[in-house]
Structures are given as structure tokens and as C-alpha cells.
Amino acid sequence: MEALTAVSVAALTLYDMIKAVDPAARIDDIRVLRKEGGRSGSWAR
Length: 45
Prior knowledge:
The protein is mainly alpha-helical. It has one helix at 2-18, and strands spanning 34-35, 43-44.
């Protein structure tokens, strides 16, 4: 969950810098593809 939050914040930061240059810029499909460790063990989409 922490990694997903970090990626979302990074994407929003990049979007904020790019939107002045490219108004059509957008963020799509932020999702977890694979997870290892933790309580539920390994997981893959």
C-alpha cells in the first residue's frame, strides 16, 4: 500500500510539472501488478 501511495504522489508531481507543456497529459492505470511478503504472502495480478 505504501508503494502504491508513493507512485501516485510521484505521478501527480510529474503531471503538475507537465500540464503546462502538454494540456492533454493524463495519468492512467495506477495498479499493483505483483506483491511479495506481508501477511497474505505473494500475490500477482
